[in-house]
């Protein structure tokens, strides 16, 4: 496998980049570029039928098919086709994506390692990996994943980077012009989501510097623009957990509040909140009864909001069956008598597969579970002093463009 070229974040006058990562090995599924005769037949078919056929193919094949003929290229590059392909991928996938960030003291270079784990019946357990060296940047932190795009926080002359691992495209997101200073560590709670009304990815920037109140802005990928959000009194000094969970395009946070009590220490409690793109404000999601004062963890399980609690030596996993309805919380799993530290990191859709962190002989290890059944241990996630951050999520391929629409 050829070594990928480095990506210079300080390059000027570029809007969208091919980051040069090597393509993963061929999968077990075979997709052959059509002959000229077959291509001519396809071009004579109605566009709707062509879209029905092409939207079922993986991104790698669609990128190749764009060279077959101009009508296919225009069709595959159209925003409507990209939306349809993303919708189909989101409802029919069985993959986990794992992103590792490593730093080399010798070369002073960051590298991103994107691992794709395929759990469908044809490619059960198949793993592919993309390595992307990053130059002139001290740190890259995966922040959030949504609908085919990964949001990265970078310690560089700008703050955010958007990356599509499927197309190998990358885009620098310019900082808001009304901000004069950003602290790289202060944006860790920022998240990437998707506005289905506006049909655009959006970044919710949450910046907290020292003892100043929270500063919140929203970036719209479609218009390549930032909008400042008025912060209400409740959220000025609220503490947003840096582990963001995106459910059906909506970013969710655990928000920590302190309720002052006379003659007593401040009372700490947690709320689940999401950002409403229509109203540009945070909205509270009800928790299961009796758990408001525990420190839980959020997950996305098959498009449903999921929450995990660690109580009295056990782990409870609850799922909200009907979004926004408190009474619809259902306890799906309970693991008791836990001697070693255990908690899920993420869930793949449709197949009940989860990535779980365990404590083993004083060292943390990462294991694939199918329900409660322990499966393969992922050796590449073993203790490594060079790994500075990890991020895992249910992976969906996407053709989504990183360029703003031209009106």
Automatic annotation (TrEMBL):
<dbReference type="InterPro" id="IPR001810">
    <property type="entry name" value="F-box_dom"/>
</dbReference>
<dbReference type="InterPro" id="IPR036047">
    <property type="entry name" value="F-box-like_dom_sf"/>
</dbReference>
<dbReference type="InterPro" id="IPR017451">
    <property type="entry name" value="F-box-assoc_interact_dom"/>
</dbReference>
<dbReference type="Pfam" id="PF07734">
    <property type="entry name" value="FBA_1"/>
</dbReference>
<dbReference type="InterPro" id="IPR050796">
    <property type="entry name" value="SCF_F-box_component"/>
</dbReference>
<dbReference type="InterPro" id="IPR006527">
    <property type="entry name" value="F-box-assoc_dom_typ1"/>
</dbReference>
<protein>
    <recommendedName>
        <fullName>F-box domain-containing protein</fullName>
    </recommendedName>
</protein>
<feature type="domain" description="F-box">
    <location>
        <begin position="39"/>
        <end position="85"/>
    </location>
</feature>
<dbReference type="Pfam" id="PF00646">
    <property type="entry name" value="F-box"/>
</dbReference>
<dbReference type="InterPro" id="IPR011043">
    <property type="entry name" value="Gal_Oxase/kelch_b-propeller"/>
</dbReference>
